[in-house]
Every structure is written in C-alpha cells, then in structure tokens.
Amino acid sequence: MNKRILIWLLCLAVVLALPFGTDALLGRSWVRLLDFALLYAMLALGLNIVVGYAGLLDLGYVAFYAVGAYLYAMLASPHIGMHWPLWALLPMGALLAASFGAVLGAPTLGLRGDYLAIVTMGFGEIIRLFLRNLNITNGPAGIDLIDPIQIGGFSFGSSHSLLGWDLPSIYSYYFLFVVLTALIVLVSYRLSDSRIGRAWAAIREDEIAAKSMGLNTRYLKLMAFAMGAAFGGISGVLFAGFQGFISPESFTMGESVMILCMVVLGGMGHLSGVIMGAILLAILPEAFRPLSQFQQITFGHVWLDPANLRMLMFALALIMVMILRPEGLWPSPVRRRELHPNDAMPASAQKEGP
Amino acid sequence: MDIFLQQVINGLVQGSLYALVALGYTMVYGIIELVNFAHGEVVMVGAMVGLSVIERLAARGDTGWGVIAIGVLVAIPSCMALGLGIERVAYRPLRKAPRLAPLISAIGVSIALQQLAALIWGRNYLHYPDVLSNPQFHIGGAVITQVQLVILATTGILMLLTWLIVQKTALGRAMRASAQNPSVAGLMGVNVDRIIALTFLMGSGLAAVAGVLVGTYYGVGNHTMGFMLGLKAFTAAVLGGIGSLNGAMLGGLLLGVIENLGAGYLGSVTNGTIGSNYSDVLAFIMLIAVLVFRPSGLMGERGSEKV
Questions:
Q1: Contact B109 A107 (CB under 8 A)
Q2: What would the pLDDT profile of B35-82 be if each residue is shown by its tens digit?
Q3: Which of B105, B280, B291 sits opposite A115 (nearest CB)?
Q4: What is the pLDDT of residue A302?
C-alpha cells in the first residue's frame, strides 16, 4: 500500500513541477500549450462519457464548448457591459450546454445511434452558422476583451508572486485547470462504477439486452449525452476566460473530430487513456513544427506543412485505430475483453480475427 | 415574375440533385445499415475531378455540353474507384465490429477525403469555367435555364435507371435480398460482399454525376462542398424513409422545394452559393422534425430493429 501512496505522491510532484520544468527547458509558449492540453483533456473527458461510457457518437461536441464559451464571453466582457463572476457562469454554462444537449438528444436518442451522429454533426455546423450571423454574438469578428477568470480576489489574468516565486498568468491557469481536470476525472471515475455507469456499459454492449433487463435506455442515454454536454460547456467557459478572445472559427467541425480522435486514440472509456490521448494530440502539432522549419532550411521550401496535415493525420488515425486496435492505445481491461472476446479461449478454438 | 413558381422550379432542380446523392446514402444504408458519412465527400471529389477536366478542355477553347459530358465521364470512374476503395479499406474490415466502429471509421474517411482534396486542389473556392451559353426559357412568369432543364432530365433518367436496376434485374433482386437478410441471401447463393461493393459502385457513380452537375449549376467547387450537401441529402433520405429508393427521390425533391420556398419567402435568397444561411437551418430543422414525428420517413417501413 505504501508503494501506491508513493506513486501518487510522485505523480503529484510531476504535475506540480511540470510547468516550471517545461518553461525552463522549452520556453514559455509550451506552458501555454500545456494549459490548452488540459482544456482539451477536460473536453475529451466530457466526450468520453458520451462516446466511451454510453457508446453514443457525438460528432458536434464542439458546439457545447461553443455554448459555454459564448455564454462567458457575452456575460463577462464589455460586449454588452456585463461582468458576471465565474462562480455564477460556470454552473450556468454547464446547465445551458446540458439543456442544449437534452433538446438535441431527446428526439434522436430513441432511434439508432447513426441518427444521433448525423444530427450532432449538423448541429455543430448550425450553431457556428448562428454564431457567425447573429448580431448578439458579434458575427464572424467574435468577442474580445473577455474578463480573465477571477476567483475571490485572485485574478488569473495577471502575474502574482508567491513566496518569492514569480507566478505568471499561464502558471495560475495551469494549476486551476489541473484542479478542475482532477475534479472531472474524479466525477468520471465515480460515475463509471456507479449504477448509472454500469447501465451505460450495458447499453453500449447490447442495447436490446439492456432494454430487456428493464433499463430505461432512452433516459439513460439522454443523461449521458447531457452530462457530456455539461462538461463541454464548463470547458468552454474556461476557454473563453483563458483566451480572452473567441470567434466562431474556434468551433469548427475539425475541432470536434480532433476531440473525438483524442478519446478514440487514447482508449474509449479509459480515463488515463483519454487524458493521454488529449495531451498527445494537443502537443503533437506543436512538436511537428520544427519539421517545417527543417524543410525550409534544407530545401528552401515547405513541401509538407504539418499544420495542413494535422487534420489528415487525425482522420487517418481514426480509421486505423478502428481497424487495427479499436480499444485504443491505452485501453481499459474491460473494453479489451469486450472487443477481443476470443482472447480468453484456447488458441485452437479461435476463429479468424475480426 | 412569379416568385412561387420560380422557387418551385429552383427547388425541383436543387431537390433532384439532393435525390441523386440521397440514393447513394439510402442504398448503402439499406444493405449494410451504415450512414456512409464519406458519401458527401465522394460527390465533392466528383465535382473537383470534373472541374479539373472541364478546366483543361476549356483552356483549349472547347465549349458546350460535350465538355461537361467528358467531365462527367471522367468523374464517374474516379468516384467509382474511390467508393470501392473506401468500402474495401474502411468498412469491410469492420462489418462484424461493434456499431460505433464503422461510424467512427466513416467520419475518418470523410475528413481524410476533405483534407486530401485540400492538398490536391487547394483550400480556395475554384470556379467552373464558363463553357455553356445557358439560354433561358420563360414559362408562366418564371424562368428556367437550359442547365436546369438538363439537370432535371439527367437526374430523371438516372433515377429511372437506378429504379429499373434495383427492381427488375437479377442484380437488383440480389441487392434487395441482401438488404432484407444478408445471411440468408448468402445461403441462397448471393455473393453478399460483391453486392455490397456493387452498391457502393452504383452510389458513387451517381455521386459523380451529382458532383459535376452541382458544380456546373452553382459554378464553384471547394473541398468542403460535400459536407452540407451530404447532410442535406441524408436529410432527404431520412425524410423519404431511409432504405427506400422511391423515398430518397421523393425526399430529395420535397426538401429542395421546401428549402427554396422557405428561402424565397423569408426574403433572404442568396444567389450563387449553395448554402444560403436560412435554408441550411431549415433543412436541419426538417431533419429533427422528421426524426421526432415520423422517424421511418414518408415511404419507409415501420419496424423494429433487426437483432
């Protein structure tokens, strides 16, 4: 048991030291990247409830992110002159996103999963269309000068000094996001083993069987969908406060696919896997940046721009993971068994692979 | 000018294009119960391949419908090969996998095709060259152009052809049998894998024609054009009853007309581009409404899910 505590303490130390180490080794822009990676981790964890736990495909997840972000941007900026505090807007963002999720999910969740996928995909585009065209959201220009996140008297937007350490804004955000990510992980973890979580697993594995066992599948699916949406809304609120500026272009279909890719690549339903996927995919494009500089220097021309290839890579990753390793790179043991039922059998009884 | 009649004509033309794409969705769904998210992108590839060919010919000074026809004739085999490839690589290995897997793979294919097209043709809107004189005809206060007439005629013929193939030939019987029950069809000597491949082949061929026609009609092509078009065609397929050929045709025409009437009377017609802001929302609302009130569609069969 002591070993376990030791591992936890070690993890905690790494998480606490990470921004300082990154800053020293790679520079301040990478700390900012870490902040974004954590935001994506929260989003991916939210989507994981929908896709990983309940087995529903949401292709417009970024729409809920947008709902949260625009809520904060409109009610905490000079845009319409309101400056509401975070503690009011965070639950509001979650609630609003969840109600959007419920409105969208209610008609489709009684039907086959394919319908939900395409309806969410359409919704993702439609909401961007509205954001671009409405006056209240300031159209394609977006909203800027959004208030930085503030808790009590502590503003995350400015530098602080702590015990003689200089603590820039991106550091404070890092610790805030770490705490919130940990909270979401905790909620997700407790959910997965709860009555609801087990019901979701049953629905995911065989919906008809789950229904026959007396589960109210429609209600349970709606629950998963709305809960995932709520986490999306929360991440959105944080994103708006952190970034200080948002526009409809931050909420494209590409983002939805990227978040989906994080969940799928990491391992649907497995929290560590999903977090790993999120951090990996958030950092990867930046890590590939030297590649184009290298091309520029050696060939005098950028032949393959990683920024343009990013989406292609994600898309190909989705296909390849589904075909070669559907449980993801770091799967949960349960999901592994689910997808490879033959593994338990003796080799002679195995049929040809899937 | 009679706005109502004009909008109905425009709607029928647009709707017949939706119907052509919807056929691809509905045929594939009928047999393997998969929403082929990449179908819209196949249409896009058809439009872009057609555009490249037409551009090449127009640069030599060729004009007239022959140029468009050559564009279509090159686009069809390209899209067929693409459709076949997609089925082989991304869907066939997942036929026995859990439901979520082919859906995720399908969205992967869709995005991958978009990005590949962006690499090949760039990210800007490309213009179809002017190779047609496109005379206009007047009927009862409304105007119909030659392009519109050709679109109506072509889609009409293709829909009839598709219907004949599916209803009257041995191949069509095998398709319908595979849709009803793949394993029993297999026992009856139908090579289901081959039938599925042929279904993708037919759907992609229709998509190619639709792509070039859409490009010719609206005058532009872009790597993202397949997205909304696909979404609307899917809406049309659902509206008509997914899995039903007649339903897809009816749904397409209906959606086109509703969308155009809506756009016409909301007073927000945007000329030139495919997506007028309001009609996009209208189509989406229709999709939700159909799913709420009649998920089996206008002509689809009501029934419980196959186990």
A1: no
A2: 898 999 999 999 999 999 999 988 888 888 888 999 999 999 999 999
A3: B291
A4: 67
For residues B250 and B42, the answer to whether their CB atoms sit within 8 Å is no
d(CA A312, CA B109): 9
What are the residue boundaries of the structural domains of chain B, listed by start? Answer: 13-224
- The predicted complex's ipTM stands at 0.85
Q: Is residue A120 part of a domain?
A: yes
Q: Do B287 and A119 touch (CB under 8 A)?
A: yes
Q: Can you give the residue range of the structural domain that contains A274?
A: 17-332
Is A2 inside any structural domain? no
DSSP state of A52: I
Question: Using the beta-carbon criterion (under 8 Å), do B103 and A354 form an inter-chain contact?
Answer: no
Chain A, nearest residue to B88 by Cα: A323
CATH code of the domain containing A141 = 1.10.3470
Q: Is residue A43 part of a domain?
A: yes
* DSSP-assigned beta bridge partners for residue A160: A167
Interface contact B231-A125, CB threshold 8 A: yes
Residues within 8 A of B (CB atoms), A 154-213 only: 208
- pLDDT band at A139, cuts 50/70/90? confident
Structural domain count, chain A: 1
Give the gap in angstroms from C-alpha B35 to the nearest C-alpha of chain A. Answer: 6
- Which parts of chain A are beta strand (E)? 76-77, 82-83, 150-151, 154-155, 160-162, 165-167
How many Cβ atoms are within 10 Å of B137's Cβ, its own excluded?
Answer: 11
Query: Any chain B CB within 8 A of the CB of A308?
Result: yes
- Assess if residue A116 is contained within a domain: yes
Query: What is residue B108's predicted lDDT score, i.e. its pLDDT?
Result: 92
Cα torsion through B63, B64, B70, B73, rounded to 10:
150
| Residue B220 near residue B1, CB atoms below 8 Å | no
- Assessment of whether the complete model's pTM goes beyond 0.80: yes
CB-based contact B307 A208, cutoff 8 Å: yes
